[in-house]
UniProtKB/TrEMBL annotation:
This is Rhamnose kinase. Coiled coil: none annotated. The keyword ATP-binding applies. Belongs to the FGGY kinase family. One of its GO terms (molecular function) is glycerol kinase activity. It comes from Streptomyces lincolnensis. The lineage of its organism: Bacteria, Bacillati, Actinomycetota, Actinomycetes, Kitasatosporales. It comes from the Bacteria.
Length: 478
């Protein structure tokens, strides 16, 4: 048996999990969980990265003896370092407003269809490329000598070594998904200095040893290696989808719903761009062909606005509300920014001529129906655009705890849903470390181990899928 610490940072909380892996066993326990609270300062919305690093150190102390450490987090965001390797300011949150209107500026130099054909990335205002163009002329960027994506920054603080892990690099919009290398032409035309980035690292590559000060602070005994994993949390989560064969779709649920397919090559057609599908890079030459859907963020923001009522009670109330009374387009970037979520959802229902949900139970139902509808659309569109049919939908991540959402997703897709594991990102993180140390085989071997060891729940589709088609027709253009 070997033990691996998986640091998994999400938009609302971070955790350090310990995975114990044997030839036919895989157990995951939580060593430490800590909140991730973005902070609004006069310049905008920022990540409290020192607080997160403190949480990582606390977690490693709680984890105890481990054979290696791996870090994954949300994508696209970064810290800038000066020539001495010191962090220049708090990393900007991807929900910060600084990228508003930036894409149009970029497209004036590289037209959107050309940018998509070269990078395969869906339009999202927060792609690192747009963030860097928004930061142009800022004194921080002018003084920066190095850019490290969030998991790479924390890895640097733990080990002193710098790198840019590929799966996360693929969310910058500066990587060519065909060559899996930097897109020098796009960077040059948009004035992005690729020398800011440290050399690319592959999942499984060694990323240094915990520094002496880190060992001292965590009470760990060295040497403890840090291993690059699929450092984009979605890459780790997809690696932990307990699928067999190729005919499956996945939905990684949490703050976001990331719904799509695992492919062996990117889909770079104009039709795919217009449908806003992204081609992010995964393990072993795979492509994560998916669409970002707003996800449980919609509910989290409502719950915050309602003063944090009990979630179980809300879901029970939601289950009593008639299905599909009103739906919103859960893929709409209009829901990206924080604040006033119940009102914004009500306004969207009013604008599309549907009944306006009022009570928390009604709004929760509207959100869950809307998410299931967006899952249906993404799974159907992806199959059509990639010419890749599926028989089953795997739901992983935090949303697996929400039985109503899983059942509605099965009903909407008209396909069985297999829900689990919940801590998919942490498990994918652990398994890539285990593989780097020779404990498990290829992606299929990792998935086989998950299927044999993790509790999974199956939901069969129920009801008439025509109801979902009708609901979709209410969302013109969505
Ligand atoms: C999920 C995720 C998504 C990415 C979004 C922003 O946690 O990593 O894959 O699009 O966060 O970084």
């Amino acid at each position: 048996m070997k033990s691996y610490a998986a640091v998994d940072l999400g938009a609302s909380s971070g955790r350090v999990m310990v995975g114990r892996v044997g030839p036919d066993s895989l157990e995951l326990t939580e060593a430490h969980r800590f909140p991730n609270r973005p902070v609004r300062v006069p310049e905008g919305l920022r990540w409290d990265v020192l607080g997160l690093y403190g949480g990582v150190l606390d977690g490693l102390r709680a984890a105890g003896r481990v054979d290696s450490v791996g870090i994954d987090s949300w994508a696209v965001d970064y810290g800038l370092l000066d020539g001495d390797g010191a962090l220049l300011g708090n990393p900007v949150h991807y929900r910060d407003a600084r990228t508003e209107g930036i894409a149009e500026k970029v497209w004036a130099s590289v037209p959107a269809p050309e940018l998509y054909a070269a990078t395969g990335l869906q339009y999202a205002p927060f792609n690192t490329l747009y963030q860097l163009v928004a930061a142009r002329g800022s004194s921080q960027l002018a003084h920066a000598e190095r850019l490290l994506l969030m998991p790479d920054l924390l890895t640097y603080w733990l080990t002193g070594e710098q790198g840019t892990e590929l799966t996360n690099a693929s969310t910058t919009q500066l990587i060519d998904p065909r060559t899996r290398e930097w897109s020098y032409d796009i960077a040059a035309r948009l004035g992005v200095d690729l020398d800011l980035f440290a050399p690319l690292r592959q999942p499984g590559d060694p990323a240094g040893l915990l520094r002496a000060e880190v060992l001292e602070e965590t009470g760990l005994e060295g040497p403890v290696p840090v291993t690059a994993v699929g450092s984009h949390d979605t890459a780790s989560a997809v690696a932990a989808v307990p699928a067999s064969g190729e005919r499956f779709a996945y939905i990684c649920t949490g703050t976001w719903s990331l719904a799509g397919l695992e492919l062996s090559a990117p889909v770079l057609t104009e039709e795919s761009r217009l449908a806003n599908f992204t081609n992010e890079l995964g393990l072993d030459g795979t492509v994560r062909y998916l669409r970002n859907i707003m996800g449980l963020w919609l509910l989290q923001e409502c719950v915050r606005a309602w003063g944090d009522p009990d979630l179980g009670g809300l879901l029970l109330d939601a289950a009593k509300v008639p299905a599909l009374r009103s739906v919103v387009d859960a893929g709409d970037a209009a829901f990206l920014a924080p604040g006033r979520m119940p009102e914004r959802i009500a306004e969207a229902c009013r604008a599309s001529g549907q009944p306006v949900p009022g009570s928390p139970g009604e709004i929760t139902r509207c959100i869950l129906d809307s998410l299931a509808l967006a899952h249906r659309k993404a799974v159907r569109d992806a199959q059509r655009l990639a010419g890749h049919p599926v028989d089953v939908v795997h739901v992983v991540g935090g949303g697996t705890r929400n039985a109503l959402l899983c059942q509605l997703t099965a009903d909407a897709c008209g396909l069985p849903v297999i829900a689990g594991p919940t801590e998919a990102a942490a498990l994918g993180n652990v398994l890539v470390q285990a593989r780097a140390h020779g404990l498990v085989g290829d992606l299929a071997g990792m998935r086989g181990l998950l299927t044999r060891t993790q509790p999974l729940t199956r939901y069969e589709p129920q009801g008439d899928t025509a109801r979902w088609r009708e609901a979709q027709s209410r969302l013109a253009g969505a």
